[in-house]
Amino acid sequence: MKKSFVPLAVVTALLFVIAPILIARAPYESEMLLIQKIFYFHVPSWVAMYCGLLVCAVGSIWYLFKGNRVADRYAESAAELVLLFGLNGLVSGPLWARKAWGVWWQWDAKLTSALLLWLIFVAYLLVRKYGGPGSEKLAAAVGIFGAAVSPFVYVSVNIWRTIHPKTSVVPDIVKNPAKGFAAPLLVSMLAFVLLFVLLLMVRVYLAAHQDALDELYLAHED
Amino acid sequence: MAHEAPASRLVFHMSATERGGSAGRSDLMFLRTALLVLKKDFAIEVKTLEILVTTLFFAVSCVLVFSFAFVKEGQAPPDAAAGILWIAIAFSGTLALGRTFERERYAETLRALLLAPAPRPALYVGKLLGILVLLALDALILVPLIALLFTAPLFARPLLLLLLLAGGTVGFAAVGTLFAAMLIRSRTRDVLLPILLYPITVPVIICGVRGTAALLESPPDETTAVMWLGILFALDVVFLTLALWTFEPLMTE
Amino acid sequence: MKPRHLAIAIWSIILMAAPLFAFQPPPPGQSEFVPIRELPPSEQLPAAPLLVIAYAFFLALMIFYVWTVWRRLNRVEREIHTLEQRTTRSSR
Hints:
The complex is a heterotrimer of chains A (222), B (253) and C (92). By secondary structure, chain A is mostly helical. Chain A has 7 helices and no strands. Chain A is globular, with a radius of gyration of 19 Å. With 253 residues, chain B is mainly α. Chain B has one domain (4-251). Chain B has 9 helices and no strands. Chain B is globular. The model of chain B has no long low-confidence stretch (mean pLDDT 84). Chain C is mainly alpha-helical. Helices cover 71% and strands 0% of the residues of chain C. Chain C is flat and about 65 Å long. In chain C, 5% of the residues are buried. Chain C has a domain at 46-92. Classes of the chains: A mainly alpha (222), B mainly alpha (253), C mainly alpha (92). Chains in contact: A-B, A-C. At the A-C interface, helix 2, helix 3 and helix 7 of A face helix 2 of C.
């Protein structure tokens, strides 16, 4: 395990203690009142998911074109984290929506595309597990295509007419810190990104051990 | 076996091209290889028309099932025709992809193709063209059929519809050909192909459906349709580029 | 009649009767979408439970994931240990 793990873990833990305090003290949003506070964990979840997507895509490209096995470990670990943080977003979203919009789910652009992106990475892990020999390369291709589709996911909310808040909500908040929404959001985002990095380190550690085990098995057979 | 003869003839043609070629003629070589692959597939298919007829009939039965599912009191919901058209194309496309590459796997001709002195991406393009021809023939039957069964004015703007269909099938087939080719060696290829293909190509389907639905309105909403066509075109470029880029490393073991 | 034939006959009758149970009257559904602001106070959802569930889910999910990684890591380390022991034993 890398030396930076423990300090990073301490910082992340601290941030996750500070964040709820800031969230509780943040002012109520005028229309949605209390339920809007899910926002402070919902949006950072998607941010962490996109971090995972980026790592998976870069790792996949590097593995596919350069044959770098370490890159493949990072890609696999990042894909699991995409599923993890994506799941958090997909659950916190409907819980928020039930109160704010009255329905659990709406087939609008952002929700649909987010679900799709999540499903693509489910497919990534299914290919790795059930694809047979050489499935790491197949999965790498899935990861690359998944990443390529994601900009269309992000842009879609601004094109379709939808009841989901437009993507400019977050930049507006950051530009007006006096309103009190910015601090808890930024702290939460930082906390989630650091959590992502921590979990990635842990998962890559596991992947490295699994590779070492595979090599031992191969050596043992000789 | 009937499959092997055209394949070996193809390899011979390609090495003949290579012998006479030089660096400056690489683009021509690429095109010739792609067209040779297309010609080979066409030659094999034309003997029995097996894949064409079966996928066509599958598409038609899809449409019929959807008719029973959605038509109520003799009326279909307004946008149903657009959705059903694209679903039928997607489903029959997946089937066609599976069957085409199953043929390659069965006769082990893909390995022969990969060993041939031809640029690998050209093989991909050749296969892609074959699938596109198949899907085009499917669409030729499906569009009038759906227009008839759902009394949908699909022919209001024929050029825009044609462009939407072209863009959609290219996007779908670009991803599909790549994934079907790379899944050949996998044991679970039958079930993995749809699992991989559908989530990634849903943006293509969405653009196609919403564009077609815009054309079905009275009067047809041309601006919206053109907007969807633009997004579709961008998606196609992305998918084709990625597929051409990754085909070579994926096919190498 | 052999007992086996009797069993098959009884099972066939049960299986054929099963679809009859599928013909249930449809449940009364919501007739239209009501915007949340217009709901009378008695039907409005309290926000607090949903908020709590959201945060609790996040915590539970993270703990669950870390636990699965821990479990897999233990398994792999145990197998590495066993293999290494086997190799050192066979090389003696």
